[in-house]
Prior knowledge:
This protein is mainly alpha-helical and 81 residues long. The protein has 3 helices and 2 strands. It has a two-stranded antiparallel sheet. Helix 1 packs across helix 3.
Amino acid sequence: MAEEADIAALSFEDALKELERIVARLESGEAQLQEAIDLYERGDQLRRQCAARLDAAQARIEAIRTDAEGRPTGATAFNAG
Length: 81
């Protein structure tokens, strides 16, 4: 539970940097089996946190458009592609 709280406190950028370090460590093949399992589990938690942050950002981007006077004119869906 403490690890999940720790991950939740990370910014998106910090979580992504840590995830990149974990991936590099796993790809190097130098981690012992138990360390690799622990790294994979932490990496999965970080991946889920980053995905949740991206989903929240996407929801914010799907914001209400406003006209020149600042009145809402409709919603614009976010297109990531």
